[in-house]
């Protein structure tokens, strides 16, 4: 499968991402935003609430699926690099985009890893890792608390960067009137 959908134009301005790349991007974006909202909502659930057990279980399941999709995207990106930046993007804009994309991927990976550290640090009999407890193995009593706080901070920074990313896409579409957003929409 080709990575790009090319039009007759000679420059990179009319090259879109492949359907697979676009699907990965929007699936991960939707999961990331949903997981953040679910995570914030479920921390205040009290025992006896219908979602008290379901919320964390769903968060773990979707978080694990997000990690899987992120790893697929990393490998996909290695074999099919993205199209070149648009010609109207300046050097500073290209650097900011590169740094932002790198940070988005790094933060999402770290959020997923720390989320698994939380799971590994509990004595939850329903843990997908069984009775293994990383906290006991490492001898760190409050590892679950540390990992939970780190998870929240990383997720909050990630969501701030997501907002920046969305605003940049809107700026490209409405102000610059270029194809940046349309390329990721497959248009």
Tell me the layout of helices and strands.
Layout: E1 4-5, E2 16-17, H1 19-42, H2 54-79, H3 91-120, H4 134-138, H5 143-176, H6 180-185
Antiparallel strand pairs: 1-2
Helix pairs in contact: 1-2, 2-3, 3-5
The CA-CA distance between the termini, in Å, is 18 Å
Strand portion: under 5%
- Extended strand count: 2
Quote the CATH topology.
Fumarate Reductase Cytochrome B subunit
Please give the largest β-sheet. 2 strands, antiparallel
SSE-based structural type = mainly alpha
Any guess at the CATH architecture?
Up-down Bundle
The CATH class: Mainly Alpha
List the uncertain runs: 1-11
Helix fraction by DSSP (H/I, runs of at least 4): 55-70%
* Number of spatially distinct domains: 1
Radius of gyration: 20 Å
Describe the structure.
The protein has helices spanning 19-42, 54-79, 91-120, 134-138, 143-176, 180-185, and strands spanning 4-5, 16-17. It is mostly helical. The chain has a two-stranded antiparallel ribbon.
Q: Main traits of this protein?
A:
187 residues; mainly alpha; Fumarate Reductase Cytochrome B subunit; two-stranded antiparallel sheet; 2 strands
Q: What would a concise description of this structure say?
A:
The chain is an all-alpha fold.
């Amino acid at each position: 499968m080709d990575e790009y959908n090319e039009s007759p134009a000679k420059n990179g301005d009319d090259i879109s991402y492949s359907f697979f790349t676009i699907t990965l991007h929007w699936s991960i974006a939707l999961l990331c935003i949903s997981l953040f909202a679910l995570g914030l909502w479920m921390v205040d659930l009290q025992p006896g609430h219908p979602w008290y057990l379901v919320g964390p279980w769903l968060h773990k399941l979707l978080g694990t699926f997000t990690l899987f999709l992120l790893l697929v995207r990393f490998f996909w990106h290695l074999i099919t690099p993205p199209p070149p930046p648009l010609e109207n993007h300046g050097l500073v804009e290209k650097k900011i985009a590169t740094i932002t994309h790198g940070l988005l991927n790094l933060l999402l990976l770290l959020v997923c890893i720390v989320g698994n550290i939380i799971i590994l640090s509990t004595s939850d009999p329903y843990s997908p890792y069984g009775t293994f407890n990383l906290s006991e193995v490492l001898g760190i009593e409050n590892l679950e608390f540390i990992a939970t706080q780190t998870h929240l901070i990383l997720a909050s920074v990630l969501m701030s960067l997501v907002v920046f990313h969305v605003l940049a896409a809107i700026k490209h579409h409405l102000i610059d009137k270029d194809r940046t957003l349309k390329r990721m929409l497959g248009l």
